[in-house]
Fold:
Amino acid sequence: MTGLKFSIGVDVGGTFTDLVAIDGAGRIVIAKSPSTPKDQSLGVMAGLEELADKVGLPLNDLLSRTERLVHGSTVATNALLERKGAKVALLTTEGHRDILEMREGLKSDRYNLRMPPPQPLVPRRLRLPIRERLRPDGSVLQPIDMGSLDKAIAQMRDENVEAVTICYLHSYRNPQHEHDTARRLQEEFPDIYLSLSSEVLPQIREFERVSTAIVNSYVGPPVRRYLTNLERRIAEAGFSGRLFVIQSHGGMTPIGEAARLAAGTVLSGPAGGMAGAKRISELLDAPQLVTFDMGGTSTDISLITGGKAIFSTQRGLGDQRIALRSLDIASIGAGGGSIAHVDQAGGLQTGPRSAGAFPGPACYGVGGTDATVTDANLVLGYLNKDAVLSGHRKLDLEAAQQAVDIIAGQLGLSREQAAYGIYRIVNTKMADGIRLMTTQRGVDPRSFALLSFGGAAGLHALAIARGLEITRVVVPAVASVMSAWGMLATDLRYEASHTHIGDTHDLDDDSLRRVFADLESQVNDRLQSWRLEEATFERYAEMRYGEQIFEIEVELEGLDWDAPGLIAAVTERFHQRHEELYTYASRDQEVVLVNARIAAVGAVKAIAVERVDVDANEAGRPSGNRPAFLDGAWRSVPVYSMETLNPGNTITGPALFEAATTTVLIGVGDVASVDAFGWLEITVRSAAKSPN
Amino acid sequence: MTSSAHFDPITRSVVQHRLSGLVAEMGEAMLRTSYSQILNASRDFSLAIVDTKCRLIAQADHIPVHVGAIPWAVHAVEARFKDVSPGDVILLNDPYHGGSHLPDLTAFVPVFDGDRRLFWTVVRAHQSDIGGATHGAYNPSATEIWQEGLRIPPIRLSEKGHIREDILDMLALNTRNGRDFRGDLAAMIGAGHLGEKRLVNFFAEIGADTVLGAIEALLDASEQRTRENIASWRDGVFHGEAFLDDDGRGHQDIRIAAKVTKSGSDIEIDLSDSDPQVTSFANSSHANMHAAVVMAISYLIDPDIPKNDGVFRPIAVKAKQGTIVWADPGAPVTLCTSHPANEIVEAIVKALGGACPDRAMGGWGRRFRIAIQGGDPRTGKKFIWHMFHARPGGGASSAGDGWSSIGEWHVVGGIKFGSVEEAEVRFPLHFRRHELLPNSGGEGKYRGGLGVALDLVVETAAVAYGNTAGDGVRHGPCGMNGGENGQPHAYTLMSSGKAPRPLKTKEIGIEIAGGSVLEVRSSGGGGWGPAIERSADAHEHDLREGYVRGIS
Structure:
């Protein structure tokens, strides 16, 4: 293997750390190692050892041949969800310290009037008022009162804060007061983690800006600590390549930037899966994909449309609003570990409680006694009872049966009926999630193929597709480590935006050109510091009609920026996009350009994928049969080992396909064929006569 | 058909998820396609599926005060039209023909399985204007309903797929912004048709009879859970009362009285003893009274019980026509979805505090609107600004302190206030202060949520004018189980060279000189349990964080 160069993708999940090494020919080596939540870098190092072992090189050798290590980190995600972030102070305009706690007056769970309000990330005593005030045009109404700043500094010192957010009203128009305040704080606290709202999210709307900048300060110190540790450990182990982190927007950045804009890493993990999905979309020439990533506790759903991932700025995590542009990924709190129960009215439900990794499903035999989706799958024969879990244990069928029997007893059903009920309910939830994900965005799921990945997806994908009238399902060979694999398909990306509040009637072409030229030079400066030679730019405008409140994103690719009538052309693009999305345009209404946005993209070399010639002469043969409960009856179902199948093989369901870390079930009449990559492409039997 | 108790529980759950997903999808379509800010920003609309027996089958969690009223609107539609065809669309708003108040326009789309008419998809949306004497339909000076806006009994706007353009022209002509009215109505009808389409597909998928069977099981299940909840409360006859500040015509302390008889799993709510109707818009319509009763019970039962006809079954309502809760035909009623709806809820919750003290919560805020119109000196353009800022606090409960800055009983966190920065960009307004108001929440073992202090500088060059519509400057949200009342609202206009002018809740044409400051102090929520039982930690926390100011 001398002379080989590697890229490595590392995805740290809740239970497992997935690693993928890929060489120049596209050959893939996979490793999975237990995650180490206290210091994730330990699990990463252990995983790298295992990976080196599988590649057949000493770790030092592997790392010294590795050009690029791309990392999906859940440090920010966990800090936020578990409320284990930094102690943060907020310096804000006097008279407006409670924006965060007032939450725009909104509360979810409408009929629950007996729930305590969420605790803000920054307690009220650390929301420190500074006497200063800007006008909406950016002019100064009240200069910073140094006395109020001194008082805030004294309080920060008393309270030993680790991080601080500065957010003043209208700072998106004029950041001077935030800069002056930051300079003063750096003199007083040289090591403090500092977030300026005008840098984190330079946009109008104070709730989103302050919330995002506070999340940044909250997760910033742990992210910075972790990345510094990791960088040191891999350097000591021989790595001299470049280390990148995936951000929520699906691009990767050097670790310095990831530590600075830490709030941008909260979706780092699933973002890798989306990059992989985009690559698969190219390889299979399948521009419309629903991505279905079903794990143990949650399921992530997103879309590839026209070969591209979709984005949103209307996101949050764990009660916190994070208005950074991010991949539009919907998370459903259900997965293989979801616990089934009978509600007070005698209805069968699955979730929202999950057995997680501990105590886990009953069949894992590590203490769980509640019936989970995984237990139902084992009882139904979908999972192999002789399969070996990581840690060299076998699944415990009897424990799963006992757990399901409790549910069956409560419902007066047989064991199989109860298990099959659990299976159907979780499928319905997933299908609802996909239906909402697609229809909310105005697209019809039936025109999409379902891309199934994540450890638990393969047993449910076909049933869900059938319910949605989706006719094609794809299961890639890398399904169980898709995020780590996808990280290697991720481009470098840096984004900048500018709030330019303006009615398009009042803007002229030159001022719009200037806004984008400024953004471009800002982004260029950053890219040079990253040693990136070639970048392409993506430009966007976020626009709405005067009376609307939801902006829509308008792509500005292919515009002639030098031609006269630029504003008119941009406005027309907006009308067209509005019509596409909502069936109408109002060309006589005024149009407002709220944000101008630019992204610089440094494309990496596309990951190669090994292709095998199709040899249809070699028929696929099952490695055996096992009984499985399908459509109301036990049947003997052939089981295929993925390793023994060849491209060109075609198998009509029912059938089970087993790979090292995942199982796929196809139903009666579904037809699976193995493509040139060794992946399953499945044609779904119509749902016309869905059994009930 | 099998009896509902033996209906396959799996199919039942599938149908439950599908119907609720379908109504949520209708809501998304409505949000994104409507024109008016009250719909796309404040989300003042609700969606439902009701069957031809006028039973609520499914709804999405939008505006609670709409939900219990919608079946009454379907009653009016069913009574008027016996010959409904596919492609018909029915419209109504009149509170004396099944509606709640005139701004809440409601569209109904029939859903068929072959020849069988089975359901209505229902879209109710608060219009930004519905004609009448004042912009925006809140007219404190109205003495009869004709001064409040255009009355629409059940009418067939679309016949077998053909919109009656002549009728539509007449409706649009009678509102101040016909273009927005048409856009919003198109969105409503579109959402109704979307629901219809999804239901018909669902019938094709699993069979209409299976859906119908599952629905019976779902309604029965909601009834069963509601009855189990109620049965666990103490039996007895309980009394509760709440007061409107005034009717804006000099009558103060208008009483809403609830006599609640709780026996086993049944509840009878008798509002007959409430005060006679008033001459202003603070009266309730019949449907709105029922909606308020359903809201109160919905807040007391387990929150996850699906809100459908089954929840209503254990509840019997008694009331007398001619009273504040059920006005005689012709009386003005526009304020009713907030007042007296809020007071009806409060009287019932107070009464049932005796039966289920751990479930009854402290009072939530009341609504006190102000709309300012004037000229923007920066642009020379006229503007009208509706205040949604300075939301009142929510009531405390056995689960803990109340939510601050969250809204009223009839909204409970469903309406969003806009960005201060955006308001300053778009209007000649300067928000000098907009933050929580310490000490506003009612004290208690658990403290009521805080209201908000807003100091708003009106930076017009010339005089601007304000209209108010609301209640709650004399009566704060009630405390529960020994908790204290929240502070009431206090709005004061400060103009240079003039004495401070407290604002009343039902005024029109308030003169606001340029540079005046509107000092809004919105109410806090009611406390729960005796203040003496508040833990030392909680008390210390309040002082340390500044939710409560000490004496020093």
